[in-house]
Amino acid sequence: MKWYLKTGPDGDVVISTRVRLARNITDYPFPSKMSPEQYQKVEQIARDALMESRIQPKHDFEYIDMARLTPAHAMSFAEKHLISPEFARERDGRALLLNKDETLSVMINEEDHIRIQALFAGMQLEDAFALADEIDDVFDEKLRFAFDENLGYLTQCPTNLGTGLRASVMLHLPAITKAGAMPGLANAVGKFGLTIRGTFGEGTAAKGAFYQISNQVTLGISEKEAISNLSGIAGQIITQEKAAREQLRYLPELEDKVFRSYGLLTNARLLSADEFMSLISDVRLGITLGIIKNKGLEVVNALLCDAQPATLMTTAGRNLDASARDQLRAQTVREKLA
Amino acid sequence: MKWYLKTGPDGDVVISTRVRLARNITDYPFPSKMSPEQYQKVEQIARDALMESRIQPKHDFEYIDMARLTPAHAMSFAEKHLISPEFARERDGRALLLNKDETLSVMINEEDHIRIQALFAGMQLEDAFALADEIDDVFDEKLRFAFDENLGYLTQCPTNLGTGLRASVMLHLPAITKAGAMPGLANAVGKFGLTIRGTFGEGTAAKGAFYQISNQVTLGISEKEAISNLSGIAGQIITQEKAAREQLRYLPELEDKVFRSYGLLTNARLLSADEFMSLISDVRLGITLGIIKNKGLEVVNALLCDAQPATLMTTAGRNLDASARDQLRAQTVREKLA
């Protein structure tokens, strides 16, 4: 089963956990400086290193030539957070290695030669790191990574230098958001070398109170320290969100809002992406508070992927204009939620 | 069965038809000039004239001493259009005679001594007039009405002088309203001696596109002419509304709006009177266009009465503040519509 069809630990607040490692192969320039031949060569080397490794039988990685995907299909991977949006947009010379349950994705020739990503439902930082680390070891057995004794792993962008590790937790924080406490929280989080921003939609505006908190420091800190630091702060935010939800639990206005959003989602014939995010956020909160009883978080989590624009078009098997997408989104949501 | 639980001819556009006759008993001043003893006397005379008449077995009129009603109970009669709001507010010395299916109400000591009202579902002007006229005849057998050869029936307010007849049709005109054609229509209607205004809510603002069209001229015109004039114009408006609805039938935006309103009505936990009127108007339109298939107009028509503030309190058997009313309204609507 795909990871995003499950819920994990602290699933009422945490949608998913992601750990990403950036690696480059020595003797090759960074992707932005590579020739087409070098692109091909790096792709071949990285691909073989994993697909022919001892762990391939266990993980069953699929090789996906990004250049052969339609733009919508590529973007649907980004909507599931399996790849970066940039990786979906510029597909020439790039490849994706994806395991069966989609907990592991390896982007080849993104900003760095190899980006290993482990993605779990719920709060599972240690497990996600352990899995990414395991894949890193497999590559390390066959490839020589660009590494400096003092600096650590060398990466194209200096912000990744050192551990090359970016760990993030996708949080649903409707109660903290409603309480107006997000700006203060974002400020406090920054003081611990972390950053928090909206997960969906363009720019940094948080649609539906979904946020991503991640580490910013990669230099002069161990992987374990970075993970532990993020884990501690995220844990405090989870506690704070749960307490804030308790304050909302018995408000008639909240019950009303949750059911109205549910009523719109299960009846609307046209749903924009933004409205969907806002309404599903209310319904998700309602489920965690026991206001909506006949639906589980799994349905909501799956919809958070399935109702995104490119995923809708990929499912439909054709390009759709905004109005046709709004119609298909409404239909998809009704079928899953009604 | 109460009239408002039924639908009548042209029920997709016409909620109800009402004909009212204003009469005063000779030898008594108009109510505003009467002493308490005269109030009592007129009440007794009018009551006996009807309750002891030959038609009482057929119509089964109930005598209701308005002074004994709670304010909410009295106002709930006004919400069903059985009495005037003024009659509900000032209840001393006033009585209501109401037949079993509530198609006939006789207000004693309203602005005039006797006001006979016939109220039917759908477009039934002739039948409503015939019924009111029948009751008028019954009173006429026993009482001497104030009548002038030249002026006709004498009434307290000069606007009723002559026939003492006010006929009105309650129309649901969502398509004409959406098309922005109401101001022009109101203007045109005025040129035929008719007036059209909102039916629900304070003042003249039309809540939910429900309107009442009625005759203004009572002097120098026969009852039949007045009824026929109103019938003709109302018939044209009905035709116009039906044509305008056909324009809307296949708009995806309309289907979306109808279902959203249905979703809110069947899920909200708090519903204000104004929001209810606006949403039920969409649902009513959706039913007539076949967009909503599992509900009939009867349910909507009944809710138009049942969800009004005083009727809610009367059903609950106690006074409710605005927030408790909004809660009970939402519950009532959910139960009837879900």
**Tally of domains of chain A:** 2
Instruction: Walk across the major sheet of chain A and give the strand order.
Output: 2-3-4-5-1-8-10-9
Compute the CA-based radius of gyration of chain A: 20 Å
> What proportion of the residues of chain A is helical, as a percent range?
40-55%
Question: What percentage of amino acids of chain A are in beta strands?
Answer: 15-25%
CATH topology of the largest domain in chain A: Creatine Kinase, Chain A, domain 2
Which CATH-level-2 architecture of the largest domain in chain A?
2-Layer Sandwich
CA distance, first residue to last residue of chain A: 23 Å
Low-confidence stretches of chain A: none
Counting DSSP H or I runs of 4 or more residues, the number of helices of chain A is 13
**Largest chain interface and its two residue counts?**
A-B, 18 and 18 residues
- What general outline of chain A do the C-alpha atoms trace? globular
> CATH H-level name of the largest domain in chain A... which superfamily?
Glutamine synthetase/guanido kinase, catalytic domain
The CATH class of the largest domain in chain A is Alpha Beta
Assembly type of the chains comes to homodimer
Mean of residue pLDDT of chain A? 94
